[in-house]
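re: that complex we talked abt at group meeting.

here r the seqs, copy pasted straight from the sheet so there may be weird spacing, ignore it
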Amino acid sequence: MPGVKIDENDIMIELHGLRKAFGPQQVLRDVTLDIRRGETITIIGQSGGGKSVILKHMIGLLQPDGGEVRVDGETISTPTFFDTKLIRKKMGMLFQNGALFDSMNAGENIAFALREHNRSMTEEEIQAEVTEKLQMIHLKPEFRTKMPSELSGGMRKRLALARAIALKPQILLYDEPTTGLDPVTSDVINDLIIDMQQKLGVTSVVVTHDMASAYKVSDRIAMLYEGRIIACGTVDEIRNTNNPYVKQFITGQRKLPTA
Amino acid sequence: MEETKTVPEEAPKRASALDSPAALVVLGPWLRLGAKAKNLLKESCLAMALLGRVLIRVPYIMRNRELTLVQTISIGVSSLPLLVVTSIFTGAVATFQCAYQFRNFVPDKFIGTAACKMILIELGPVLTGLVLAGRVGSALAAEIGSMKEKEELDAMEVLNLDSLRYLALPRFAAFIVMMPALTLISDLLALFGGWLVSVLSLNMTTYTYTSGLQLYFQTKDLYSGMLKSFIFGIIICLMGYVSGRNAGAGARGVGLAVMRSVVSACVLILIFDFVVALCFF
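got the structure back, here u go
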């Protein structure tokens, strides 16, 4: 939907046969998914189904029990290999609850990583960058002195997004960006996700079970069910699917629809 | 739609004599004790690994001097009021008990000698260690545990920020500097408490008490206490950090991590107190 030209053969993130278990619980059984450069793909599925686990594999917070994760042509993790330092510079992540640093104010939350990774930048340049990022997420510069506890849920998520884009990532991962927000604030976040794709040209992976958000921001939607990707297609393909499990999920029915 | 495979059920376990209720009653406490010892050993091993990883990052200490200063104030200055109360009263009680035991057997001036030895070698460092394990070690475990719970540690990793450099190293440096300093302050306050009791309650003169302090004083007494406090500082910081890092989910997980940090730090402080005593005396 967002109208950015995407090359179907230019793959940014590849997941092949991903498996992950936590104790006796097998969360991912065989996840295979290709994510194209510049697209926004949304992974939908039930709560507790392993959507966030997929994101954590992409960014190297978890190592798979089986399968392979490749980012921008490089293998970053297999059960026997794990090297995430280089790819983390290419990635940013918006956590479900923002994961802002509570002991720092809004400005410092954005400036912290900037200051540590760009030691040649002067303090004025860092503060200018912070102001620019705050403007990108439609927060006034005065907000830089507010502590995270003084911000609303929507503002916290926007601030977390500003922090995620501060290091100019090529890939942005969103973990349930609209969960817990009212419909209007959710739409503001949706617009920001689209903005990020159009203005920064980032590849975005959104994990959500909010179908309104998924329809609005996605180029493609993939459905995770019982540890596997059971369907992947454009928004229209997913809307018109005959797959009963996808149908059940997108229409929010308790029972499987009969054919 | 792809077929989903069902996970095969595990085969039922074979019944054993050890599973009988009678065996469980007899073995239960031992098994629980074994499990706790295993946990303590596991956390100690993790703490040793962490110590190595923190030591590698010592060259970054000057870059993080502001964070280190904040921690030094938080650990040191903020702990002083509690330390003042516990040290003065412990010194006073120890001196009073010495006087009670020595009455009619030992001259008064040896009360000061006994108090000095007891405070410098044992009471000062161990008491400071236990107080800081309760006050600062628990706060450290709670802070790191709640940062983990709120995904702040993951956020640091994702931003390519080394959490050991920004969280562990400043606290580690602050503990190493402040523990011996606080122990020295605690020693002086405890001796002051002993003097108060001697003069106000035991009818001793200041001269008798202070001459007793100097009698048989060896610098080894002071050094061994300082070495202990240095080791205790490392133990408290490591156990607090490791417990917080391994905290389970939710408020209960953080609560258990805090408890584990205090228990393991206290147990290790007592064990290492014995080890250092064996080495020095």
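couple things i noticed - Chain B touches chain A at residues 1-2, 4-5, 7, 150-152, 154-155, 157-161 (CB under 8 Å). Chain B has nine helices and no strands.
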